[in-house]
Inverse folding.
């Protein structure tokens, strides 16, 4: 029998970026908040001397344990979905801080075009450009960039983001809190080449801070040391903005926030007398197996894309999307990301082993609708960038396409090219298609006997065209940089669950202004349960040509404001 805990104002399911933001804002407003985190406690002190590539980058020390919970995958409905036995294409975080601990720190705002993509595309090119008849389901987000801009600003100030003005992005109310990072020889070459080609390069906005910074909550973030151990690692210096050094301590300092680790939420509980309300959650202590019920006035789902979806589905909240009839909203609009780039081989040696997760330069001339799509067979585009993230020796084996993948020639090429190759890459948008969605598997279960999430996904014709276009544009930049040889990425075909591509999974619990096409309103409040909020990259209607974290952070601040308003007023939140 489950032990019932004392009722609280707010319970957050997950304590990463979104859970930390909601907890901090709600706790500062005087609400009593409990954060349920299924992983363990951790922080900067746990990452001292962690330059162990094998443990963290290869064996995934900070990632979800797929022996306990994974997902099944297939490209299409006529295939059998099989479980991921080892993380590959994406890396799901676990423990306090979630994926916000092991991210690179690249912190882009989505474009104004992203939030009104259907309206703006139809206005400029006509409705036929949306390709509804081909199964694409492009829709607006129910919120505009201008409405979300104050929340972007708030997230950047909390994280102390280092950056500079982007002439091709949306308008800003304030400059970045800290100056851009160091401009290295590699970045200078990219800047000169892309400027020569008529583009508008800028330093990448970075959560690896260029200088020490105290944020508005009084939390101090250190200056980056350019050690090159960002992605897949926690920062030993406290110089990469993450939940553990920003919003979580801010929430704790209020005295109104409690974190319970090793607490895996398995069900959202609905009021038996009023099915428009939830009453709390049921969770399991992952060490003892003991069950608990946490009553709360407000429940906020802050875990990763797949788990937010899963909790709604197993709790029978909302209608599952059916790709045959296209009825239902839960699980629809799953999107991922594409990458089209080129690698250049140089005589000159570079310090590629040094860097930071967001040390880079980029331009947006081929992102969003910043270029004419009239004669192109795809929409959107991608951010074109070069990064100096710190090539680590085990995983960095850049070889020419005709080189064997083992043996003496492989070793020779790997050593020779380790400091003599540079890559320019377009990070492309992914738009929703009716056949790409999330469901529950009817065969496989997790360690708690709950069905695994089933992912049905494949690259679309649009993805193939956009990836090829971006790769060709990247090759022009690499050639202008002076490479002796340029190798362009091969054209993509079917999506594969390996190798690693990005942890930029989106959709499944999308936001909007219509309950027929979305799971939440633009306050991230569930259409069917007034006191249930769902926020994260699952809220994205589609993916952009950027990393998702800044937009996730902005939505979390929007959600936090909604939670506080609901606690004060109750009922369905309306646009102001």
């Amino acid at each position: 029998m489950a032990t019932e805990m004392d009722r609280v104002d707010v319970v957050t399911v997950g304590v990463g970026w979104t859970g930390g933001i909601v907890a901090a804002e709600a706790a500062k407003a005087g609400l009593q908040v409990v954060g349920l985190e299924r992983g363990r406690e951790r922080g900067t002190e746990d990452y001292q001397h962690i330059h162990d590539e094998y443990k963290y980058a290869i064996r995934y020390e900070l990632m979800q344990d797929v022996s306990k919970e994974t997902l099944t995958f297939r490209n299409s409905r006529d295939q059998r979905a099989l479980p991921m036995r080892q993380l590959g294409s994406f890396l799901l975080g676990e423990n306090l801080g979630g994926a916000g601990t092991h991210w690179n720190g690249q912190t882009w705002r989505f474009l104004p075009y992203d939030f009104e993509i259907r309206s703006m595309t139809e206005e400029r090119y006509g409705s036929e450009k949306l390709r509804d008849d081909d199964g694409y389901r492009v829709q607006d987000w129910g919120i505009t960039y201008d409405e979300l801009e104050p929340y972007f600003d708030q997230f950047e100030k909390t994280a102390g983001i280092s950056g500079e003005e982007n002439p091709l992005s949306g308008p800003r109310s304030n400059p970045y809190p800290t100056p851009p990072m160091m401009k290295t020889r590699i970045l200078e070459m990219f800047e000169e080449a892309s400027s020569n080609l008529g583009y508008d390069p800028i330093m990448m906005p970075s959560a690896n801070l260029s200088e020490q910074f105290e944020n508005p909550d009084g939390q101090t973030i250190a200056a980056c040391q350019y050690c090159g151990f960002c992605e897949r690692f926690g920062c030993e210096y406290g110089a990469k903005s993450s939940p553990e050094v920003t919003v979580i301590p801010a929430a704790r300092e209020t005295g109104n926030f409690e974190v319970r680790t090793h607490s895996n939420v398995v069900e959202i509980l609905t009021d038996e007398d009023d099915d428009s309300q939830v009453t709390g959650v049921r969770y399991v202590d992952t060490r003892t197996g003991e069950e608990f019920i946490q009553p709360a006035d407000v429940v906020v789902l802050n875990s990763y894309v797949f788990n937010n979806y899963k909790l709604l589905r197993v709790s029978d909240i909302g209608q599952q999307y059916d790709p045959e009839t296209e009825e239902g909203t839960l699980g629809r609009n799953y999107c991922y990301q594409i990458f089209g780039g080129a690698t250049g081989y140089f005589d000159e040696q570079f310090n590629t082993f040094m860097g930071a997760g967001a040390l880079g330069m980029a331009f947006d001339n081929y992102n969003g609708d910043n270029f004419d799509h009239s004669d192109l067979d795809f929409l959107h585009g991608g951010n074109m960038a070069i990064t100096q993230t710190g090539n680590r020796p085990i995983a960095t084996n850049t070889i020419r396409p005709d080189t064997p993948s083992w043996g003496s020639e492989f070793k020779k090429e790997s050593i020779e090219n380790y400091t003599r190759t540079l890559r320019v890459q377009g990070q492309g948008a992914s738009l929703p298609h009716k056949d790409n969605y999330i469901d529950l598997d009817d065969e496989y279960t997790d360690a708690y006997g709950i069905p695994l999430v089933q992912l049905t996904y494949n690259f679309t014709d649009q993805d193939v065209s956009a990836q090829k276009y971006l790769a060709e544009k990247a090759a022009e930049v690499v050639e202008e940089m002076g490479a002796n040889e340029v190798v362009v990425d091969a054209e993509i075909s079917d999506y594969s669950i390996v190798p690693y591509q990005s942890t930029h999974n989106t959709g499944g619990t999308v936001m909007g202004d219509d309950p027929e096409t979305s799971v939440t309103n633009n306050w991230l409040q569930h259409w069917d349960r007034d006191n249930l909020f769902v926020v994260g990259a699952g809220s994205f209607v589609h993916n952009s040509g950027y990393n998702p974290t800044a937009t996730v952070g902005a939505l979390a601040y929007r959600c936090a404001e909604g939670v506080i308003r609901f606690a004060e007023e109750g009922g369905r939140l309306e646009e102001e």
In short: The chain has a mean pLDDT of 96. The two ends are 44 Å apart (CA to CA). The first helix runs from residue 17 to 28.
